[in-house]
Amino acid sequence: MFIAHSIADLRQRLSGARAPAFVPTMGNLHDGHIALLRRARDLGDLAVVSIFVNRLQFAPNEDFDRYPRTWEADCARLRAAGCDVLFAPDERELYPQPQTYTVRPPAELADILEGEFRPGFFTGVCTVVMKLFACVQPAVAVFGKKDYQQLMIIRRMVEQFALPIRIEAGETERSPDGLALSSRNGYLSPVQRAEAVQLSAALQRIAQAVRAGIDLSAVLAAETAALAARGWAPDYLTVRRQSDLQAAAPGEPAVVLGAARLGETRLIDNLEI
Ligand code: PAF
Q: Is the shortest distance between the CB of 182 and ligand 1 below 6 Å?
């Protein structure tokens, strides 16, 4: 595996590549990331992963400083899974001066759900992804469905800027009990880890209610109250249309989305219906 810390080294290494397939990450890699890498290996002639903890997408009160950085373990996992190129710039390399140009996605996509509770988050994500795309110039990029709104917003960004990049979605990887894999699961105490599965369990019950045609507002209120009673602080539980996460009309492909804090840890999950 070739490791590039600079944009120049990366470009030199990728100069002969016909169709690089790219997986952007913030490191602390788990099986979900490795599944995305395997997908990238199938899709391109060269699999490129980036590790960059992007300060721009963290609010001042969020966990940028304590976000887990596990460089040696990440490199070992990537090597074992057949990553060809790892791009790991430091902040000065990727943002050599204050990044005064940013990519601001439209409010109707980016200020709802995650964006309502994490103002500016998707501007940070779109800005870094645009910059990483400019560095890697992939033919295809793979994003996990775990971050459903992120995937939708990146798809729109690529369409709107006519970037010659195909966006592929990777399914959410889960622990045997159903918890969606996430780097933030590592913050959970053993007791919280056992409790954490309740978020995906709530989403499953909501999905069943949608399929059964049961009155959704009552179900959402009951599930929100049930999580709160177990000690969670729910931000939202909702059912939206898959394509743009606006209100779903009956019969449209829908997705159940949820976000809630358990202690200091904020977890998100979703289920397509
Ligand atoms: O999903 C993530 O890990 C990040 O939001 C991403 C896409 C790597 C941008 O920093």
A: no
